[in-house]
Amino acid sequence: MNYVVETLDNLVHQTAFFNLTVGNYIMIVVALVFLYLAIGRGFEPLLLVPIAFGMLLVNIYPDIMAPVGEGGAGGGLLYYFYLLDEWAILPSLIFMGVGAMTDFGPLIANPKSFLLGAAAQFGIFAAYFGAIFLGFNDKAAAAISIIGGADGPTSIFLAGKLGQTTLMGPIAVAAYSYMALVPIIQPPIMKLFTTEKERKIKMGQLRPVSKLEKILFPIVVTVVVALILPTTAPLVGMLMLGNLFRECGVVRQLADTASNALMYIVVIVLGTSVGATTSAEAFLNWDTIKIVILGLIAFAFGTAAGVLFGKLMCLLTKGKVNPLIGSAGVSAVPMAARVSQKVGAEADPTNFLLMHAMGPNVAGVIGTAVAAGTFMAVFGVF
């Protein structure tokens, strides 16, 4: 009888109930909210579902992120996934997939889009100085600032390169959360800084882009950007390689693999490992709250800067540019471009801005990578 009681007692105490803290329960609720947003509301489910599930797992069973012990023994499953984040492998592969999925034609057809993409990076530098003001050191501030570009992979990449692994979880979760919430955050800002007349502006059809231009573009961009900022090569290089797969026409199997199977495998591994960095002990602190607030402010600044520069271009072109496409200069591809289209269509259902907005959207991806490379060059990190 004593054996049975002792066995049952051991089994009961092996359950998670006896080990969870109040913080763990809070994070479990946060994970469930993320799952609701992803599944019930459709906010970037490919990102939020694995992130939320990783968050759920680590707060129920923390050892799933346990590091390797002495002699190389042990190590939780998601810890090994997380190492691929720290080593900048997964962010680079994500960029290759994005390149293989994205048509750079609108950017090639309208090179002025680069200016809108650059303007939207203002949020990054606003966040950098804000983080310095709140007491973060310069490298931590740089890693946090990339959230302003709404670019999760670049945020993870830069945090790892600058040695800010303790902040990688909050930074990545904030970046991906704001990417998912683009349809909620951006429209009020876009409407605040534009008039109804401006939102109704119809833009002329983009010129056709030749196959040769589409093939040369990723090659030229890689050479130029990597020569000026070699530290951007892992991100910009993979982005352009994926796009070259798409456009050259002779490696269709590689393009399909990069944009589908490989992309989704990487998203699963990256998402769950990022979510698993959000244990209650690591996430529920003042630094995390500061990062989340800074990210929101930076994202709002970036959106506003893009729209305001769009208004300037509208003025200089005598009404030929709809300022709404400037908001797509953040890096959330293609969600930000779709939001530009949606807000424009609300003002005039016959307005079609999607392809025009894709130019600044793609430019924003490149711009965020360049910003990350600039920070790495400033701090002497390679």
Largest sheet: none
Helical fraction equals: over 70%
Cα Rg: 22 Å
Cα distance spanning the termini = 65 Å
Count of helical stretches: 21
Order of helices and strands: HHHHHHHHHHHHHHHHHHHHH
Provide a descriptive summary of the structure in words:
The termini are far apart. α10 (152-161) runs antiparallel to α11 and α20 packs antiparallel against α21 (354-378). 51% of the residues are buried. The longest helix has 31 residues, at 286-316. By secondary structure, this protein is mainly alpha-helical. The chain has helices at 2-14, 22-40, 45-60, 77-86, 89-101, 105-109, 113-119, 122-133, 138-145, 152-161, 165-180, 182-192, 196-199, 211-228, 233-248, 252-259, 261-275, 280-283, 286-316, 335-347, 354-378.
